[in-house]
């Protein structure tokens, strides 16, 4: 119909207006791009600020909900204790045991709080949880006690931060009043929240490098602050704060957000404060602008670089356009008339439209959409034929071209052709299009109308949806959480992931309805009813408060009968309920093991604490008995009584040493030894101990040479003898006792089962018997001192406690396996002594002959012990000078009128200790010899700087012979 006619027009004689327009266009485009980039950066910055503000608000609200929730739970517990106490008072008076038991049960519900305690009307703490050995505390001067005392209607009172008189740590006290039936005060029940607990909560939050988070009281005094800076700004009670905060709280006391420069570190932050529920506390969270605007600064650099690149490209493109324009202006004018006929028809069409001339084998018309689709200007389109835009490689390209030729022929025959194909775009996009071919009527040319609709985004959206669904399924199926989704009123299960199937053993077909899940997961009816009621309560509470359901922990029975400890979290989305289950079985087992380990450590410290005073008293008893025996015949009645006293004192000394072995505080002399050789040497003695009706067998490691272990040989004998005695008592009718040794390497995963284990090489000693065995409850207590299953008078309960203490002191650990009627197996692990660990022998010091004519300066602050020891030394033959304090001893040495050959001094005394005293005396008499003595444990002595190489030391209590031998050794080898 239309034919391009080349018109004859006069050549352009002036191209200056075009040049001006081109330059103006380039400048305008660059200016618009610059403005666009600037506005984009400004909007991006505003978005970063908005996101940071929202982040601080959400974080402050989240922490506020957590803290206020904790306070509410504490309030409920305190209220229940208040009601219980007032009920007991109304029924005739408080029953101490019943109230303490009730408080302990309530405390279990809130393990995060320090303690729950109840005072009387004078403020004395008389009931509650906590360390029972702490002396009675009085809180009558505390602000919360005074407030409750003066105001019967005060309800829950939250104190300002105080240092607890019992715990000795910073804390917040929450308290309630307990009233008499007549309304007068009967006492106060209070609980504490340690600042350490709140600091631990804050440390887990993500607030950025320069972010801050903290709590202030009603007077805006600082309660706690994170992170700690060791400065005055974060001291408790500090009121260093921005005036903006004060102004905002005056106008908006509940919550607010502002951005300002901090008064204490000159850092600009966006801060949000939030009042914590109904309590007189404020939560504040701040994020530094330098933290949350860091990505924006990087955006500025990147945008400036791209803007500069765009300026260069636009300038180069303008030059190319100018050159090409001057060359093609004649050709463009000749086509103008032909293009004008089609312009109105196709220019503004929503699809890309081209007119193809089969005779010229090129496009003769195209609209703006075609330029956008193919990524090139129309002049370029006019030079291309229909085959150019198919993105194919041989041989597919030949097939596509043949198909296009067929489509063109069919369209020219009058058929309407529709198909989809990918087209080749000059800018590399290569979009997928719906193509429609229609013949245009024309008498002069064979013209074909081609319209293309870009469906790339439509197809990409479908593909992205499919990919998103695949990713979600992959993530859910491989999640460590057990996931189950149920829908509708009947709660029909529509999805469970692989973790759910692995953990519980049930498939989707077996759990198509959640009604079948409850009796299988909770087979015991009572427990099932309890879980169901609690679940229903949390659902109702979530609906009522328009919040998420609170997670709950339950014991779930799997398909194979095993019971798992699961923490459930629920999300309700429309009619769908999604349950997430986290397996806490191993975690709870590890927590129990850690609790047992900590209990054993506490018992050890208790055992060590009594050693000093007990040993001092034993020294006096043993010394007095020995002194009396030197003047009394042993055959006489008095002599026999004295021998009994001496024997009892020595027996008490041995028990004390066993306690020190359990607490790992005794002084030892470890040596490299072969475990096989030591057991072989002790076999004969062990055989006598167990008797003839028990068969003793030793199986040393046959595979390789057994590694050596470094231990005090006497300690190893104690271990063997105590285990043999324990096995003998477990086999009253005879049996078999077996010892085995082996080399073993322990890896990291072993730590999950045994908290005392550490990776490395160990020598394993296995002691097994065929005795009566133990149940689980007994096994949990066998290493505790004074715990015994024997009748009164048959055992002290220190045997296995001593074994445990010695093994732990030597960096090993012990495990026990036993079942009733199945015997017992102890496995002991000693660290391997590496081959390069050598023992340096002490150099022999020439021995000087001494006679018993030396003068000894005896220093001890215990008057009775000073007198007894003096008599022992005089009985041996020494001349004794007494000093009841370090100051008196130093004064005696300064006088210099008496020759002193040896100083025998206690380690721990009031004022300066024995070591400091000796250091001062050495300035006066550098050659004086010193023998230290103490009833304290070795770790206490080490803290005083006594147990060092080359120093002489003797443990209290000691006998006359031991003292004589140690003094002689000190005089000869010092």
Describe it.
It contains 26 helices and 33 strands. It has 974 residues and is of the alpha+beta class. Strands 1, 2, 3, 4, 5 and 6 form a six-stranded antiparallel beta sheet that branches. The protein has a five-stranded antiparallel beta sheet with strand order 8-7-11-10-9, sandwiched between helices. It has a five-stranded antiparallel beta sheet with strand order 13-12-16-15-14. A hairpin with a 6-residue loop joins strand 15 and strand 16. It is elongated and about 155 Å long. The N terminus is likely disordered.
Entry summary:
Helix content is 44%, strand content 21%. The chain is of the alpha+beta class and 974 residues long.
Keywords:
974 residues; six-stranded antiparallel sheet; five-stranded antiparallel sheet; alpha+beta; elongated; disordered N terminus
What oligomeric state best describes the polypeptide chains here? Answer: single chain
Which regions have little confidence, pLDDT < 50, spanning 5+ residues?
1-15, 661-666, 838-851
Q: Kindly name the structural category.
A: alpha+beta
Strand content: 15-25%
Give the radius of gyration.
45 Å
Q: Report the span from N to C terminus.
A: 127 Å
Q: Summarize the amount of helix as a percent range.
A: 40-55%
Give the tally of β-strands.
Answer: 33
Query: What's the tally of helices?
Result: 26
Morphology: elongated
| Averaged pLDDT | 79
Biggest beta sheet summary: 6 strands, antiparallel
